[in-house]
């Protein structure tokens, strides 16, 4: 069966992001050409990424969906050429996940936490892959319209606990699952920072936590631009180090070298 997710990804581990899309919020178009995506993924591993997350559908605020065929058309040529690299697939479609797993991907990163496709749980269970379950309020097209919570951390924790239980009931081993509060997915700036500040309440669920604050617009807004759609690398690194200090295990980032260097220093200082 292989190692548990915490053995496979010791804290802190960096997950590099490669979006093979025309429209992702921060790297849209940059890696749409398969050759560019392959080169970016290889560079990320050289820079110290423990895994590279390949995605063929943008989930940025306002994004519509793409078909499974289109998603596969984007990611398949990339995955085929990266067979010996540690990879995850960022998808909510079982058809895409199944093909990616056939091509050697070891983790399924599902931003719908198994709610998007009724066949996804079986595909993950049968393969024995690692799984990331992420919180999202609403759907990408409308999620930033007016996010509301009674208490954002309590709500996200209850959701992730429920989705973890559903995954285990569907036959996925708990030791192969990690959880993610879903920074920017139906959340205000204050919600996002509160989730990091109170991260120990989420690690109390007993599973490794993934945090993806990298380049997100809340960082640009925090620094004074109310209409920001992205955040700077420096602000991303600051948020990632804070998340690590509060207990995050995997940091999902676009700028691998900067995060690996910062987290190595943070670990030396904190461990
Ligand atoms: N964020 C994005 C996409 N997938 N998966 C997890 N587990 N956690 C995240 O925070 C997360 C995610 C959005 O970022 P990105 O992939 O860069 O952009 P886009 O969705 O526009 O492709």
Task: Report a brief summary of the structure.
With 271 residues, this protein is an alpha/beta fold. The protein contains 11 helices and 8 strands.
Major sheet: arrangement of strands? 6-5-4-3-2-1-8-7
Helicity, in percent?
40-55%
Distance between the termini: 30 Å
Class by SSE composition: alpha/beta
Largest sheet: 8 strands, parallel
Order of helices and strands: HEHEHEHEHEHEHHEHHEH
Strand fraction band?
5-15%
Low-pLDDT regions:
none
Summed up, the helix count is: 11
> Residue-averaged pLDDT, rounded?
97
Shape: globular
The unique ligands bound to this protein are: 6-hydroxymethylpterin-diphosphate
Please give the radius of gyration in angstroms: 17 Å
Topology, number of strands: 8
Could you explain how this protein is built, in words?
The protein has 271 residues and is an alpha/beta fold. The chain is 42% helix and 13% strand. The chain has an eight-stranded parallel sheet with strand order 6-5-4-3-2-1-8-7. Helix 3 runs parallel beside helix 4 and helix 10 packs parallel to helix 11. The longest helix has 18 residues. The chain starts with a helix and ends with a helix. The relative contact order is 0.14. 6-hydroxymethylpterin-diphosphate binds next to strand 1 and strand 5.
């Amino acid at each position: 069966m292989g190692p548990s997710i915490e053995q496979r990804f010791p804290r802190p581990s960096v997950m590099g992001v490669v979006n093979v899309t025309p429209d992702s919020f921060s790297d849209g178009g940059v890696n749409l050409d398969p050759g560019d995506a392959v080169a970016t993924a290889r560079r990320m591993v050289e820079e110290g990424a423990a895994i590279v997350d390949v995605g063929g559908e943008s989930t940025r605020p306002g994004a519509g969906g793409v078909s499974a065929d289109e998603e596969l058309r984007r990611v398949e040529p990339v995955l085929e050429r990266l067979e010996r690299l540690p990879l995850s697939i960022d998808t909510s479609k079982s058809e895409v996940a199944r093909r990616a797993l056939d091509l050697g991907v070891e983790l399924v990163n599902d931003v719908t936490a198994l709610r998007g496709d009724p066949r996804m749980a079986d595909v993950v269970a049968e393969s024995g892959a690692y799984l990331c379950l992420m919180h999202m309020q609403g759907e990408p097209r409308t999620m930033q319209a007016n996010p509301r919570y009674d208490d954002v951390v309590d709500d996200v924790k209850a959701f992730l606990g429920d989705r973890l239980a559903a995954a285990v009931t569907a036959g996925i081993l708990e030791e192969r699952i990690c959880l993610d509060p879903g920074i920017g997915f139906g959340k205000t700036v204050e919600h996002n920072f509160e989730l990091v500040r109170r991260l120990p309440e989420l690690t109390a669920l007993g599973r490794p936590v993934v945090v993806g604050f990298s380049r997100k617009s809340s960082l640009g807004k925090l620094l004074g631009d109310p209409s920001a759609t992205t955040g700077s690398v420096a602000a991303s690194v600051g948020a990632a180090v804070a998340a690590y200090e509060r207990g995050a295990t995997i940091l999902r980032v676009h700028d691998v070298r900067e995060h690996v260097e910062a987290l190595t220093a943070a670990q030396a200082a904190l461990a």
